[in-house]
Amino acid sequence: MKRTRYTKFQGDFAGGIGLDDLMEALGDFLLDSGFQDPWSEFQELNGDHTMENLREAIKQVMESGDFLDEEMQQQYDEMNQEQREEMLDSLVERMQQGDYIQQEGGEATEMQGQVGPGEIAQPAPPQGEARFHVTDKSMDFLSYKSLRDLLGGMGRAISGRHDTRYEASGIEASGSSKPYEFGDVMNLDVNATLSNALQREGLSVPLSVEYNDLVIHQSEYQSSCATVVMLDCSHSMILYGEDRFTPAKRVAMALSHLIRTQFPGDSLHLVLFHDSAEELPIQAVARVKVGPYYTNTREGLRLARRILARSNKDMKQIVMITDGKPSALTLEDGRIYRNAFGLDPMVIAETLEEVNRCKRSNIVINTFMLAQDYALMQFVQKVSAMCKGKAYFTSPDRLGSYVLQDFMTRRMKTIH
């Protein structure tokens, strides 16, 4: 009698590693913001996206003891140097084929091209050294992971999901009923319609239903929203031995993913503010680095207000992610006034005046505050109160826990 013996498949080691899990483990390396964290496992790589650094980062993940399960860790430990190099080559190739990264060639220059706001000049790699950049697919994946860690599970998404106080005809019957009018969604209230017909004609067969008998369900009117995410990339975001910028980017990425998936009818824009302010594609948020800049909050609000003025959405909001301290101001002649010491009265006054302009334009300002300084918290509270927005107070190491101050209901609550 023929016998078949089944044994465990001993496949390619690299093929058994999930790329999503690997990308999540490499998140700190891929999202490096220019902060030199002595406790980071990728500290020696300096956030430089060369292919050699990518291989080294993957190697550090494998050797951390936290990524692989016990069996795969044992297999990795038993590999010789040549086998490990082949495994790294295979993983990098899979990442390229899966469109997680794209390789690019290096050129010999004194510095890495033209340095603009949101970036710090770094020495260029040696001539010919291969580099890579993270694709939009990876940015979307990392945004989803940030959202999952930050806000929990996602619901289903349809266009126009923002609750309001009004009612309208719609598919979801969450409101009362009303007589049908031309143009309404035909979400028929069958019981009320038949009741009207019976009252008019009495119990007879066949029952004739006329136009005036029609009754429809109403649903809560849900509007669309235009959102500008304002991201502070000033130097204060990495001062005092604390990296506030990487958590800020994670919040921005989570918000962008939330808005795109939960509220696909909305529009979303990204504004970086520092000595000045400029608009960037939202997909670029994960690649932004902190710079040696001050915090020109007023200029950021001014640009955000101009962007929202072009929108025809029902609601308009600014989501500002900052450490809360305005320290720069653009003067009428174009010069930048800077004062990093305390809360400058002139800077604060001009910033609050811009907040007033946002209020008059019916723009809500919601603020993620990544610091716990009392004076800064008072400033953020005042901004939120003026525009009837919300202030989310947290710290970089506790992004999952917020103290939400809702100025529309005047209540305080903690969100975990």
Automatic annotation (TrEMBL):
Specify the domain of life of the species encoding this protein: Bacteria
One Pfam family of this chain? VWA_2
Question: Where in this chain does the entry annotate a coiled-coil region?
Answer: 51-85
Q: Which residues form the VWFA domain?
A: 227-325
Q: What is this protein called?
A: VWFA domain-containing protein
Could you list this entry's UniProt keywords, alphabetically sorted.
Answer: Coiled coil
Q: Which organism is it from?
A: Terriglobus roseus
